[in-house]
Amino acid sequence: MKRLSHFFVNMKNERGVIFPFTIMCALLMSALFLHSVALYHTEIQFFEEEKKWYEADYLMKQTLNDVKQTLANAPENVTSLSQTISFSRGRATYRAAKNGADVWSVNVSCVTNAQFRYDVQFQFHVLTNDISEWKELY
Q1: What integer is the mean pLDDT of 54-80?
Q2: 35-53 pLDDT, tens per residue?
Q3: Which of 25, 32, 96, 115 could form a disulfide with 106 if both were Cys (CB 3.0 to 4.6 A apart)?
Q4: Which residues lie below 8 Å from residue 87, measured CB to CB, with a gap of 6+?
């Protein structure tokens, strides 16, 4: 019995342990919460950036279809073409110049409504209706 009372006496002398422990746990939980909020914010920014890229890629695909059709049907005596196309999500401008009898050098620039820009440069072969030497310009 004497030992048991000695144990409780020592416990009474150890005051102030709970409060620092609670503060440390609260700081740890706050750090974990802030870290998860930062990750969430980063994911939202990534989603917005991806949305811009998808819109620009959509504009580029629509413009490429138009460019292919225009260059395939271009008269033989035309050496350069330039056009701006407006879409509901932005606009695209292309410039094409003949490099040979059946090869066109094309620059395409797409700008979304959010002012996100996507530029490419490529060679278009009229006989095969193929694109080669694709370069994305940043």
Answers
A1: 91
A2: 999 999 999 999 999 999 9
A3: 96
A4: 59, 62
Distance of alpha carbon 60 from alpha carbon 38, whole angstroms: 33
Output phi, psi for 137, to 5 deg: -100, 130
Amino acid at the residue 20: P
How many other C-beta atoms can be found within 10 angstroms of the C-beta atom of residue 88? 6
Q: What angle do CA 32, 37, 43 make, to 5 degrees?
A: 125
Closest CA to 121 of 97, 105, 102, 104: 105
Contacts for 127 with CB less than 8 Å, ≥ 6 apart: 102
Longest CA span, the chain? 113
